[in-house]
Write a structure and sequence with these properties.
15 helices; single chain; disordered N terminus; 12 strands; 8-stranded parallel beta barrel; alpha/beta
Length: about 400
Amino acid sequence: MLLCCRSGSGTVMATTASARSLPRPWTSPHRRPAPASARRWRCSAVTWEAEAKEKKTATVQSKAGDALEVCRVVNGMWQVSGASWGRAAPAAAVDAMLAYADGGLATFDMADIYGPAEDLYGMFINRVRRERPAEMLEEVKGLTKWVPPPVKMTRSYVEENINRSRKRMDVAALDMLQFHWWDYSNPGYLDALKHMTDLKEEGKIKTVALTNFDTERLQIILENGIPIVSNQVQHSIVDMRPQKKMAELCQLTGVKLITYGTVMGGLLSEKFLDTNVSIPFAGPPLNTPSLQKYKRMVDAWGGWSLFQALLQTLKKVSLKHGVPISSVAVRYILNQTSVAGSMVGVRLGLSEHIRDTNAILSLELDEEDMGSIAEASSRGRNLMDIIGDCGDEYRA
């Protein structure tokens, strides 16, 4: 019998030196086997650990079998793209990425247009290779986006851009490439996705995904045989549009959703409870692009007074479970149909919320919680009627 133990990551590994110094049960004739109850306890511990990992991660998979396991809470790196959120030195930002990964939050989302995001990931993954066990390297995932202008999508043009991201991120193959297209009237997005699929077959991309595509175009893409694993869309308690047509198609096809804007840039937090941002200097400033963007969503949905009623509902649920409002907001969306993961923005090297983020993964909302939040959300306007389907807010 081989004596094994589990690492913090859940990987079966050899015993430590201290364990090897103990009497070895497989060599001692006087050592009796552990009683059945102890063996059952060990099995229960392994089962519990597997169940905990299952709650923490989700697998996105295409019909072709391409699959990627991601943390259900994804570290969003939009914040490194501009000075509006503050900017830390690269070394401090990479230290922060390591802290998130050490805390079990090892999936990072970025884009070619997010300033130095891909370069920071390249520095980070090299630190992981040098300073962390191999098990962590397997857990770390880098999801990037490609946001090209709507020009002619030739094979050479697509490959050149994918190679640039591979070089910046210092990886042989991109874990996930999420594709964005600005102009639906230009069908070049299908050419680009076909070239990306070819590059996946050549080992330069592990999984092909989308960002900000609507239901109609997702269906067209799937009908053209593109092996899509996920679509990244804006989704929050205020913006429930993805649970309309998009979730229905996802259920039929197996495509998963990765959501952003889930805490609305920080609006879904205690900081904005019992405030009036319409009065100058009376409330917290809306001083980042994300806060300004999601304040416009609040206005379209129903306005600040109705939003305050929603925050009050979330506060009651958060007090019941001993977690922040933001944790409740993310957990509610993670519980929605076809949602594999939700983004929480990180201000690397400037602030951290590892503990609160991990609280999301252990939080269990009961039927009463889910019902009260759904009721508060439904008081707002139907954003499908006002804005249109997922992603339409980015197109004229």
